[in-house]
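Possible regression after last week's pipeline update?

I re-ran a chain I had predicted before the update to compare outputs. Posting the input and the new output here so someone can diff against the archived version. Not blocking, just want to make sure nothing changed silently.
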Amino acid sequence: MSLNTLIQTLPKAELHVHIEGTFEPELMFAIAQRNGVKIPYDSVEEVRAAYDFHNLQSFLDIYYAGAAVLLHEQDFYDLTRAYLLHCKADNVVHTEMFFDPQTHTARGVAFDTVISGITRACEDARQEWGITAKLIMCFLRHLSEEDALATLALALPFKDKIIGVGLDSSEVGHPPSKFERVFAAARAAGFLVVAHAGEEGPPQYVYEALDKLQVNRIDHGVRSEEDEALMARLVAEQMPLTVCPLSNLKLKVVNHLNQHNLRRMLQRGVLVTVNSDDPAYFGGYVNQNFSELAEALDLSAAEIRTLCKNSLTASFLNAEEKAAWCQKIDSYI
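New output (post-update):
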């Protein structure tokens, strides 16, 4: 059996995907036209050509511009359903999606509009395809602590629909400690917590996410390898890292995929997982990340199995659900 067949066949979870980052140019253009929103592109081809950037900030610029066409509940439904169709194709049986309410509420779109469209699509996917989904609300770290606290307050009436909170957007210059009080309030309200750290930011940001935010998972975390004590801690605590290889390549965290440190971290016993981050912008959904990484790093079938099991182990599914999916992976021949 080829590795690509194995990748396609094994069940897996995705734990690091921004729903706004799954916005394919065709859908963006269609919703812009439907809503009468002017975007600075005259065709799908022009939109796709704009998906060429050199660092995190240049990506974020077009990311936020694209999100501006999302106005109505149906827009968020269509966006989410399109992503979940990719999950179905890639045998992603469980996904934990980030969404950025501040990107939308700042434009006058109600919190309820955003979450209602997303959750309706998730429920339809569960009923139609058996895919389970959980939502993680991210705070935009380039905005203020006060703005984050206001967003947390908006989220409380929808707590039954949101399993956790996270921290994303421009990393450098906005350390996790900036949001220590926000995350303390979120934990007190019963949310699980995750945070982007150690992508463009230094290992110190990972320490802050662990110690000041008390996260359940680290998103990215690839620069942790620069600090030996931190690596030892990640292994000892089995702290999950939600790694996004094609994102790291596109944003120049690595210059070539064969330089990526995921396999080294995996071999050291770090609980690393493979994810797509913003797949519409970075060149591939989960299985594409697996396939290109497997080729670049010469991953073995056993390592691919481990990575799929890691994704479920690191998820926020309950223990019984995790065990059942891991058993299916172990029993697959």
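Follow-up from reviewer: compared with the archived run. The chain has a mean pLDDT of 95. Marking as no regression found.
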